[in-house]
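Practice problem: predict the structure.
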Amino acid sequence: MLGGIAVGAALGAAPLVGLGQRKLGLAPGIGHALVVGLTLLLFVPFAVGAFRTSRRLAATVATLALPSGQGGLDLAVAPRRALPKSLRSWTPRAMAR
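Answer:
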């Protein structure tokens, strides 16, 4: 989805700037700034959703892969805490590809 927004903005920037010049009398620099701003406004909710989903997914995977010990010493506490942090750190890298 994020890639589609970026591609759509890149392909639609010139026609939108031209439309802004013809209909509203905007300077090309202002038109480009508006296109970038609108693209970011569309981009942010999806990026936030992806990060929130990755956090929940990482916690679920950690709980399933490293279940808590029943009573006594729980040797999986540290790995269970580290796994979600590791998975969350890879989310931006995966989104960039």
